[in-house]
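Researcher: If only I could read backbone structure tokens as easily as an amino acid sequence. Walk me, if you will, through where the backbone shape changes along the chain. I have put the entry right below:
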Amino acid sequence: MALETMITFTILGAIGGLAYILVNTNSLGEALQYKYMKHLVLGGIAGLMYYFLYANYSFPDGVMAIVSGYASADFIPALSKRLMKLMGGGRG
């Protein structure tokens, strides 16, 4: 069950990244640019990170995986900054 859940949360995060692309682009050519495609990849990573850090397999956590995928460009740097602070290696 754990592998299926991890895959589900990764896909949900990628869906959030895709939602970001659809909201912020005007054409297919623009959507295929690197700066937007990274949201798709980072969205999947953010969904997987959400699974490891917070999730139970339930409706609200699935929605939050999509939201974290949508905000992945901000979510991942903020999370890494917080983890660095906790480990004593970060500044600020």
Remarks:
- Residues 2-87 form one domain.
- The chain has five helices and no strands.
- The chain has a mean pLDDT of 85.
